[in-house]
Write a structure and sequence with these properties.
By secondary structure, this protein is α+β, with helices and mostly antiparallel strands. It contains 11 helices and 17 strands. About 40% of the residues are buried.
């Protein structure tokens, strides 16, 4: 069996493989631009492979492609210490070759690069069982915070008029502040200023893929399809104090919701200032949501009225997660993560409010 990365010259073969092994007419099959953006233009790709290849692995048996695995390498931050990690996508084996060992061989190839953390975000229950058998940690429900902007319309348009589902939820409301902080929507960041802020403050108290300027620019500012809104918080002297990044998504024939993919603040004033600005971007939206492994950055959102979803046997749904088509059954985002034994030994991995992992860390916030 041959295990290797796809060459850039093999774009057509890679897209055909995704079509045949992962899913017919998948977005990566239809849009070469998105494929190259995710697996070739990633600024951290060279940590795994050179400029002549995609960071996408294939397994060939007797010259036939039978399995694929997409990899997005990233710089990793562990409380200010720089490591290497990666996020996975499109791990699949042809049905008739499920017992060939190709899937495991692809994963072993990834681990040869010794990433300290490997993330799989947006998995299903069957794959979760496989990750558990491999000794990975599984998060069956990634924490989700929701801020309701228009309660009545949300109930009417998305919940079939069932007021009981949001019986304890109120609409978000700005908090009065006397801070001299300013929040502006910007098209770019000053690299030196942002990296200084990130590494001197947020990096030291968090763990996750690095949110330096290189990541922000590639992941959001240069995205080939999505237009993200970047809210930058500064003090009176122009020093960076925080950042929020959102995407407005059109759903249900003219309605819209807000997807928060980054929310980083340095103190109470920046958290409140960013949250206030965020909920006033478009008051016609139904709601905002934010997925994050911990509440490390949600204080400001909670202050203006966001709540973390609390699900039970009697309250499985707050607001939907999927809208094309509207799905009232699947309301959770599952994830799995591998952490090296060395990292587990050196750091208090169960420390409260440590992991900053959002939908921006994988392929979950992309066009379908």
């Amino acid at each position: 069996m041959e295990i290797r990365f796809f060459k850039v010259s093999e774009t057509n073969e890679l897209q055909q493989g995704i079509n045949d092994i992962w899913g017919k007419n998948h977005i990566l099959v239809r849009e070469e631009k998105l494929l190259k953006y995710m697996f070739f233009e990633n600024p951290s790709k060279n940590k795994f492979i050179d400029d002549n290849h995609y960071s996408f692995l294939g397994a060939w048996k007797n010259g036939r492609l039978i399995a694929i695995l997409g990899i997005m390498p990233f710089n990793l931050n562990i409380q200010g210490r720089k490591e290497v990690g990666c996020s996975l996508a499109n791990w699949a084996v042809l049905q008739e070759n499920r017992n060939s060992g190709a899937g495991l061989a692809l994963m072993q190839e990834v681990q040869k690069f010794q990433p300290s953390v490997i993330l799989a975000l947006g998995i299903n229950e069957n794959v979760a069982l496989l990750y558990k058998m491999m000794g990975w940690k599984v998060l069956y429900e990634t924490p989700r915070w929701i801020g309701i902007l228009n309660k009545e319309k949300t109930i009417d348009k998305m919940l079939g008029g069932d007021h009981g589902l949001l019986r304890y939820w109120k609409e978000v409301k700005a908090v009065q502040t006397n801070s001299n902080y300013i929040v502006n929507e910007v098209n770019d960041l000053e690299k030196e200023k942002w990296d200084k802020f990130y590494w001197e403050y947020f990096a030291k108290q968090s763990a996750g893929f690095t949110r330096d300027y290189s990541f922000i620019k590639w992941r959001y500012l240069l995205h080939p399809y999505f237009k993200y809104k970047v809210l930058l918080c500064i003090d009176a002297d122009g020093n960076y104090k925080g950042l929020a990044i959102i995407r407005i998504e059109n759903v249900l024939n003219g309605e819209s919701i807000g997807r928060i993919v980054e929310f980083i603040s340095s103190d109470q004033d920046s958290a409140i200032s960013l949250a206030n600005s965020l909920i006033n971007i478009d008051k016609d939206m139904l709601f905002f949501d934010f997925f994050c492994f911990s509440s490390i950055s949600t204080w400001g959102l909670e202050a203006v009225g966001f709540k973390r979803t609390l699900k039970s046997l009697t309250d499985n749904l707050v607001v939907p997660l999927r809208f094309q088509p509207l799905d009232l059954e699947v309301t959770n985002l599952m994830a799995s993560m591998y952490v090296t034994p060395k990292l587990l030994k050196e750091y208090n991995i169960i420390k409260d409010n440590l992991w900053y992992v959002t939908k921006g860390d994988a392929d979950q916030d992309r066009p379908n």
